[in-house]
Amino acid sequence: MYDYVIVGAGSAGCVLANRLSEDPDVTVCVIEAGPSDFLPFIHMPGAFGMFMFTKKYDWSYEAKSDPAIRKGEPMFCPRGKTLGGSSSINGMVYTRGHRSDYDGWAALGSPGWSYDEILPYFRKAEHNRRGADKYHGDEGPLVVSDCEMNYKISKVFIEAAEQAGVPMSNDFNGEQYEGFGAFQFTIDNGKRCSTAVAYLHPAMHRRNLTVMTGADVIRIDCEGKRAVGVTIDHNGKRVAVKANREVIVSAGAFNSPQLLMLSGIGHPDELKAHGVPLVHALPGVGKNLQEHPDTAVLTTSHYHGGVQLSLGGVLQMVGEGIEYYGAHLGKLRSSFTEVGAFLKTDPSLEVPDIELCTLPLLFDDSGRDLKLMTNDGYSCHVGCIRPKSRGTVSLASANPAHQPVIDFNFLSHPDDMKTLIGGVRLVRKILASPAFDPYRKEELFPGKDVQSDEDLAQAIKDKFGLEYHPVGTCKMGADKMAVVDAELRVHGMEGLRVIDASIMPTLVGSNTNAPTIMIAEKAADMIRKRPALKAAAA
Fold it and tell me: Residues 65-69: what's their mean pLDDT?
């Protein structure tokens, strides 16, 4: 029996485990389905691509197939399954989004979540190597560091963007969100700084904190409309874990709604269809799924010192591995995705609508197209960062071992395709700049003959991707489809909160790891009934 039971030791769960257990008068238990994060490759920044091939540390979900997208091939959806969750397997890019993203949350019925109100929690979490200022903190547990710029082609991208007249930014999380520049990363001196590293491991010596790994949560146990604990499957045994104060679900945008529905909290008709007894009718559970759709421009090139899987390239990577393990030096101490941008496809837009991520290799299908990577080349991925399409997460059955049904419903709104096409055209303009003349061979995808909007749309559908930023399935708000209120308490229930990316009413225009950490930092103060942090002086 514990005061707080946290389901999921991911980007939010690790933060909560640390912050709640700071109070020595409460007991906290965090339950993780995956194993511990001791595997050395987890902590090597340049090895993150290997987790696209393992199911031990990755849930490796597949979304419902759409015959119009990727020719009917199911969409691969990696999610972290270890301490640190997706912060232990992601690309470590640290971005937060635009002020208007959070002001929009507040306007939709979530007081306390405007940009000025959440900025102090970004600062609280952060230990930025650049130091503290109005936008950044330098005393938090999460180390954020500058790009080391190991790849020549990254500098070429920045030079080309300048030649193309694209605005520049030296801090996407500061005054200048719009522009092209180098990312910052959750990397600390050549090692990944996941939330497990930053928050959980430093707290595991506390006697009031229990961390369980390899434990599958079967359901939330309720007495009437109050959550009183969870039932888990641990080492082949069913065990009841009681919560004196609260059950906190931090299992992510796919698993959190699934667990609520398996526990009888959701749309009555859907639960009835799977024989799940109704505990509380809440029709918004699993609805409002959002994700950043992605496409790319892939270009073959002359050798530029990038990454490729020829014999020579593999031998080079072996050497990099030896150098890394010998002294934490070399290219594997950083991420491949060094530079990118937040840009507008239409100058009349108020805020950028696309994110660009560049790579010093030919990257498609979440890096699983190994044959493609045997060639020299470079990639520029285009993400539609304010998509209008909405999908769902639903039950496949009442069996907790079955994956949920993930239906992104991509491109159901025509504006999303319009944005992707505009993004491809903008990237082509950048790639045509003189800076690329010494390297460029040919555009492999979409291909130089693919020029009309109609042909581009078909090409985008054929190689459609996503950015691994699912949110929204337990959205925060006050409308009839909201699942949690502004303090992340499940509407109509007692002793139950959801705290993770699933509570975002709308998808932020950035990577989602930093916002998820912020959400957990703010929620911890709410749970502990501490006054909200105030903004730093200008």
Answer: 94
